[in-house]
Amino acid sequence: MILIYRSMKKKCVLLFLCSLLVLPLAAEDGSRLWLPAAPEMSEDLSTLDIARCEMALLPVKNALVSTSGDRRLRRYISKAELRSLGEEEFIVRTVDSLCVVAGGSERAALYGVYRLMRDYASGCLAASYDIREKPSYELRLLNHWDNLDGSVERGYAGRSIWWEGDTLRPALYRAYARANASVGINGTVLNNVNASPRVLDSLHLDKVRQIADLLRPYGMKVYLSINFSSPMALGGLPTADPLDARVVGWWCDKVKEIYRLIPDFGGFLVKANSEGLPGPQDYGRTHADGANMLADALAPYDGVVMWRAFVYNPTETDRAKQAYTEFLPLDSLFRDNVIIQVKNGPVDFQPREPFSPLFGAMRHTPVMPEFQITQEYLGFSNHLAYLAPLYEECLDSDTYVDGPGSTVARVTDGSAFPLSHTAIAGVANIGLDTNWCGHHFAQANWYAFGRLAWCDTLSSETIAREWLRQTFSHDDRCVVPLKRAMMLSREAVVDYMMPLGLHHLFAFGHHYGPEPWGYRKGMRPDWLPSYYHRADSAGIGSDRTQAGSDAVSQYAEPLRSIYNDAGRCPETLLLWFHHLPWNHVMASQRTLWDELCLTYQRGVDSARELAGIWQSVAPYIDAERFAHVEARLRVQLHDAVWWKDACLLYFQTFSCLPFPAGVEPPVYTLDELKRIKLDMKHHN
Ligand code: GCW
User: Fold this and answer.
1) Alpha helices (H) along 32-87
2) Spans in the chain with pLDDT lower than 50
């Protein structure tokens, strides 16, 4: 007895000492993403083969992974249940000691296995399962803004994985497809929406075919962005008028050629009559004419057209209203295989925007949300900004179109009213960098997009926890503080860049640093920050009330009235909808000016807190990733101070008020800040 007690005591002491010892953790370069190393597999496996190989990685002794038609499954799952499985739906059920994964298709079986792998890699593999899952959206797509010359528009993680020279990278593409499948992403648009017509020439199409062949076993389809003038640039036609028979014929032939090469090709993504790109309006036709012409060409092959609603022009109409004004009258005119792709907010991927009023308003045409995963407006790959709270905020927003509960998620995923297709897209943050996304934490945004596309009611907190446990550690002493950091991070960026509904205070072109004073002679007014902040001696903010641009009227009641009333409008969106005097009294009883200053300061404080949290988890992170993230958090803190100083010093020239107590004195002068010119090559 005493002996046993002694040996137990020894073990406990040993365990205790081990927990104090800081063992060097194996270096990680981030290339494995959130997944365990892939199994050794031959290259010509079917989707089901892959599912079974992945299953073999798990510590599950007996498993049966198959599709609903397999009769062996009937011993464990009723015929009726199996029959009712949707194409992407799976059941995971433990019967005695057997783990059964049944998919409505091979792809669904693979998703079932990845569900188990997620639990395993998170350290939560259960002894027994009885679950059934299907995705919220039918099409769950990444959009790559990759150019054919290998550059990536708004990409901050190196060159394009697709178009860098004519290199094909089979191993990388398989790893990419595996990562996407592991979160349920089932399609990818391979090229920039600012599309070169050349993507449709035979050389590029052959490359697309090879990529499609590599992604297919993981259940991913490929799609292409097209340039509306392709029939002219590539086909030598004198016009691209969508109602011209030669143009229609050209597209039909092109689509036929594509499907000969890629029988399961997904379809086209189109940016037309937007930011200088050609489109049907060049010929006096509508967006519906253009989209339908392409949709008809694709319909025989079950292809879809995703037509972007990101259209705006420097007219008298408020930019925030233009997509709605342009597209709403066209509702009911689109073919069934047209989906209107709408950015989450009415302007452009700002750190915070209200949801686009097109969600819920178009009822006869499927509308798909487009989120930006790449951080064009959130500090590139230098800033830690976990974006799931932003996606969640949009998806959970109540549009009220059918009374309370008509969230953006429900009006786009088919649960509020029936839709011919449901879809969601995320602009990828992926490049050739070893860690794929530039910042190790930016991987979480890719992951989170996929998870929300699969289940649009997941909470950003749950996703953060899952991702952290798979990516860094199972130890709560690491996971809890890092989850706090992630959950804090997006709000931190909003606070130090543009709080209280301010937007588009970015430097022209690259959109990295602050330039609220930005002015260029002859520049489109809607590309200048003053178009959005409207600061003057009387106050600050965009008047989008009924007395102003009346953008509020694009929202259903009671939102319209809430947004219209400065007393009821959420303060997070106050200056989006209102131009208010500097001494406007906020809920805190402080003046708007004081509140603005203290919110910028809070942003800086949060950036400091992020850096502090990272230091506190040092023992749990390998040296390589630790140093990488640490260096970026330093840049983030520096940038937060830069943003705060620039915005407050500039707005102070209008408010003429002192900074309230609690705001750190500026490090820079306004003149110094105005002289900063970053050398980054990007348009508008
Ligand atoms: O936000 C703007 C970006 C452009 C982008 C455009 C779009 C691909 O600054 O780089 O072009 O939106 O979404 O089409």
Assistant:
1) 47-56, 79-83
2) 1-22, 682-684
